[in-house]
Design brief:
By secondary structure, this protein is mainly alpha-helical. Helix content is 58%, strand content 5%. Helix 3 packs antiparallel against helix 5, helix 9 packs across helix 12 and helix 14 crosses helix 15. The radius of gyration is 21 Å and the shape is globular. InterPro entries: Centrin_CML-like, EF-hand-dom_pair, EF_Hand_1_Ca_BS, EF_hand_dom. GO terms for molecular function: calcium ion binding. This is EF-hand domain-containing protein.
């Protein structure tokens, strides 16, 4: 049996670094997205020598992961298969599979940007910030992981990496190697793992699940814990404030803070059915499926959420969102500038800006439409599902 604490750690790695499209499973396309993200970090052009090198390495890791974990041979690795594989590793961490050793070495070399055989705080932070994690959290994690040292060697990294996957001690330095931010809080039970899948309403189409899980992962589950809590909203406020240049205490920061926390309260009342203070993937999907049955009649917090998102993006306050404003907010959540700009173009359908009336229709369409080509699908910056 895997403890709740270790499940939470494993799910953090699954959702933050492997399931790049937020679909609830890992497949080859997730590795393609990871390759593009890493190339962007390092400034490697697509098709260049370094790009091809990292592409080869990551696809070898995918082949190894799939060969070991994809028990039902459906071409993807589910949460349950992921947990089971790492539980087997924990029984004999001195004998990792070839792909696990390759993955460990790859992560170290990726973070060691200078190539000096050690990782410092800035190198560590640079990589994890690119995956949408808060920079202050990444630096704090490095300090905890390195025990205050200026850098971490390859030998030290291997021990920390091993510790992450096997340790039951919340204070173990290895727990911070993937910036598992929820370690700073007392660990809660994981309610997201069931029979190998996210526990998701089976009546919802796969297409809509992918859209909803993308939104859940990228914009709501800010700490990658697998559930949405008040803390996630506080982290999102910080991201938005940073993107807009609003300091804590500024009038605009306080307005955004109030809006986001009001949204959290409304969402919690509607979605948190078991009253545990957090919203699971299943509760999230069920809530939006109820909305999709009558998208023209949203509950109060959903109306407020739509309006708040519009006003946060409308930096100029002119009553419309242009491409630059749209891109600014979405890149603050870890999306690429290029993809965000393309998403705006697809969503705006030739317009240079979107009014609130336009935005509201697109917002409703995102949550209710089954058409992959519907303009509303691009309202949260993603290009495909």
């Amino acid at each position: 049996m895997v403890s709740d604490f270790r499940k939470k750690k494993l799910l953090h790695v699954f959702t933050s670094f492997f399931d790049r499209d937020g679909s609830g499973s890992i497949d080859k396309s997730d590795f393609g997205l990871a390759i593009d993200n890493i190339a962007k970090i390092r400034g490697w052009p697509v098709g260049g020598e370094k790009y091809k090198e990292i592409q080869t390495t990551l696809l070898q890791i995918w082949d190894g992961l799939q060969g070991r974990a994809d028990v039902d041979k459906d071409g993807q690795v589910s949460v349950d298969e992921w947990i089971s594989m790492w539980d087997d590793y924990a029984k004999n961490p001195g004998s990792p599979l070839e792909w696990q050793s390759q993955y460990c070495k790859f992560i170290f070399q990726l973070e060691d940007a200078s190539g000096d055989g050690a990782i410092d705080g800035e190198e560590f932070s640079s990589v994890y910030s690119s995956f949408g994690l808060n920079k202050d959290d990444t630096l704090t994690a490095f300090k905890n992981m390195s025990k205050g040292k200026a850098n971490v060697s390859w030998a030290e990294f291997q021990e920390l990496w091993k510790e992450y996957f096997i340790s039951e001690d919340p204070k173990a330095p290895g727990n911070f190697i993937f910036v598992f931010r929820t370690l700073y809080i007392s660990p809660k039970p994981v309610t997201l793992i069931v029979a190998g899948k996210y526990q998701i309403n089976k009546m919802v189409s796969d297409f809509k699940k992918k859209k909803l899980m993308y939104l859940f992962k990228i914009f709501f589950d800010a700490d990658g814990s697998g559930t949405v809590t008040k803390k996630d909203f506080e982290l999102s406020i910080q991201k938005i404030g940073k993107a807009k240049g609003w300091a804590p205490g500024d009038d605009k920061y306080k307005m955004a803070e109030k809006a986001m926390l009001d949204i959290w309260q409304g969402m919690q009342i509607k979605a948190d059915l078991n009253k545990d203070g957090e919203i699971s993937a299943d509760e999230w999907i069920s809530m939006w499926e109820d909305f999709a049955k009558d998208p023209s009649s949203p509950v109060d917090w959903q109306k407020y959420y739509c309006k708040a998102i519009f006003h946060i993006q409308d930096s100029s306050g002119d009553g419309a969102i242009d491409k630059e404003e749209f891109v600014s907010v979405h890149t603050s959540f870890g999306l690429s500038q290029e993809d965000s700009a393309k998403a705006f173009d697809k969503m705006a359908n030739g317009k240079s800006s979107l009014t609130f009336e336009d935005f509201e229709k697109l917002w409703q369409e995102f949550f209710s439409s089954e058409d992959p080509n519907a303009p509303g699908n691009f309202i949260f910056g993603n290009l495909s599902f």
